[in-house]
Write a structure and sequence with these properties.
Bound molecules: guanosine-5'-triphosphate, magnesium ion
Strand content: 15-25%
Distance between the termini: 23 Å
Structural class: alpha/beta
Shape: flat
Number of helices: 15
């Protein structure tokens, strides 16, 4: 069956110098030839060339445009692709797309271009996901990993392990043929070592989901502490802007505030929160409840203590936070050091008033983000990968158990093949329509 020819805007909506409209499908050139007028009849266009001409519809000049043609299979989707570069803005691209739709093109669904690239074998599933991550990542490090994933770093590694497991399963099955003779084609300890290697790789990658999320979406920092400790002052200092209200009245901040910034190139989402204390004020109480939910999503809690109230003033709160959020990093920061003369032997001494100590604090934040994410190299692990990798590791664990307990070769082979199947689902070698639809629905239209 012929694929529908799809069309969508590939660039963002809005004011810009240019917009790019993308087409994919057998009819792309044919449809264009009805409305594009240049030096040649565009139906005879050569692949990988750019043409200049006018879009004219019903004798009305719509725009002067460029038209690029990529003949199947040498295109992003593997189908005929035409890209029209027109003037930017809100109106021009819409007019052109509407004209193309009226001549037989269909509006593309979210991710449909990349989905076609996958179905036509131009890229596999992890590469398609890398495309989305390239577009959505907020950090340079995230884009770098996605670029390697797009090149196939993750896929290739998975393929190597998949092949090794398939060979191992094959040898184990082959032994079945010699069951009477009691032949061992490869020693059991060698098989276990091979399976273990893959299992550890799967577990390591599965555990990289959290670090991958940080590179995709940024690192989450919550500034918390007693009222008046200077949380909003610190928030403003990070932002370099008077964003939050600062006052000497305790209980100034009620709702939390969230902003996104870069610290030494790392993308950070930073929250200013209501001061924690016992209060009868119902609005303030709600604000304090929200602090809990902010801390729940945080990668790092900055507990800001007013050093002028005593260096140990937040000790009890610190102990509470550590027991409540044992997996969250916590920095104790001593603020208002401009007001005290004694040496400070705990936490990070700073003064929001003078700016002292802020650079050291920023440096430590940078180090902690960098350490959390530095292990990532091959892939930005998403929830789908992580779940499949964990299932593969579990099957391999069962395979090792089966070997150790001298189970039948058939059972060992079944467990290994189950892991092979999970790895195949990651790259999309075996996939279901449902998975594909979920993966591509997260894309934007035009990608
Ligand atoms: N001397 C001195 N005063 C500071 C410093 N940081 C903040 N302050 C003052 O402390 C008071 C409280 O500051 P905020 O930033 O509003 O404190 P907060 O923790 O956000 O307070 P709430 O929102 O009420 O919980 C203000 O009067 C600030 O000017 C500092 O480093 N030195
Ligand atoms: Mg405040």
């Amino acid at each position: 069956m012929k694929n529908k020819t799809i069309v969508a805007l590939a660039t963002p909506h809005g004011i810009a110098g240019l917009s790019v409209i993308r087409f994919s499908g057998d009819e792309a050139l044919n449809i264009c030839s009805k409305v594009f007028f240049g030096k040649i009849n565009i139906a005879n266009a050569e692949s990988h060339r750019i043409y200049y001409g006018k879009i004219i519809d019903n004798n009305e000049l719509i725009d002067s445009v460029t038209l690029s043609y990529f003949k199947a299979p040498n295109s992003y989707t593997g189908e005929d692709i035409v890209e029209i570069g027109c003037h930017g803005g809100h109106v021009v691209y819409k007019r052109i797309i509407n004209i193309l739709l009226s001549h037989g093109a269909f509006a593309a669904e979210a991710g449909e271009f990349t989905k076609r690239a996958f179905i036509n074998g131009k890229i596999d599933l992890t590469q398609a996901e890398a495309v989305a991550d390239m577009i959505h990542s907020v950090s340079v490090a995230g884009v770098n990993v996605a670029a390697r994933q797009l090149e196939g770093s993750f896929t290739n590694k998975i393929k190597i392990f998949r092949k090794m497991l398939l060979e191992t399963a094959g040898l184990i099955e082959l032994e079945l043929d010699f069951a009477q003779e009691d032949i061992e084609l490869i020693p059991r300890d060698k098989i276990i070592a091979k399976i273990n290697e893959t299992k550890e790789y799967c577990q390591k990658l599965a555990s990289e989901y959290h670090a991958s999320q940080i590179l995709r979406n940024g690192y989450y920092i919550a500034i918390v502490g007693f009222p008046n400790s200077g949380k909003s002052s610190l928030f403003n200092l990070f932002l370099n802007q008077e964003r939050a209200i600062v006052s000497e009245i305790a209980g100034t901040t009620r709702d939390y505030l969230k902003e996104s910034i870069y610290i030494n190139g790392y993308a950070i989402n930073i929250f200013d929160t209501a001061g924690i204390r016992d209060t009868d004020d119902t609005i303030e109480m709600q604000g304090i409840k929200l602090v809990q939910s902010v801390m729940q999503q945080a990668d790092l809690i900055i507990l800001l203590n007013d050093a002028n109230e005593g260096l140990n003033n937040s000790e009890k709160l610190q102990a509470e936070l550590i027991s409540k959020f044992p997996n969250t990093e916590l920095f104790l920061v001593q603020n208002k050091t401009d007001l005290i003369n004694q040496p400070i032997d705990s936490g990070y001494p700073i003064s929001c008033k003078t700016g002292n100590g802020i650079e050291v604090l920023k440096q430590s934040i940078t180090e902690i983000v960098s350490n959390t994410t530095s292990t990532l190299s091959e892939a930005l692990i998403n929830e789908r990968h992580s779940a499949l990798l964990q299932l593969a590791a579990n099957s391999l664990d069962s395979a090792i158990d089966a070997i150790n307990q001298d189970f039948d070769n058939e059972i060992i082979a079944i467990e290994i093949k189950s892991a092979v199947d999970k790895l195949g689902q990651i790259t999309g070698e075996n996939y279901s329509e449902e998975v594909i639809n979920t993966v591509f629905s997260a894309f934007c239209i035009g990608k």
